[in-house]
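note to self — DONT lose this again. spent like an hour looking for the file last time. sequence + predicted structure for the chain T wanted, 106 res
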Amino acid sequence: MDEWLERQAPLDAAVANALIAATPEWWKVASPVADRGQEDSQERMTIVITSPDGQPEPVSPTEEIYVSLYALNDFFRERGTIWRSASYSVSQEEHGDWKYSVQFTY
């Protein structure tokens, strides 16, 4: 595995684990989208968490989600690439394990 991917994997896992911890236990799928922006000299991140299954309960991003995403952002900045948006998807499989995927927009 590429060195950058080896370093990125635990950062992505931290985001996914923070998301799983923040969602109600009856949610089996969650999709947060983090959008980065710049206002004056301040970097800003907006995070919206939804349920593709249509769960109506709102889920607010926790401190752990923000910390994990900012750590991921810093890693990308170190690499010389800055993403504008990160879309995660976490889902619980039948036997109870969770899996995640992520897609970045640059």
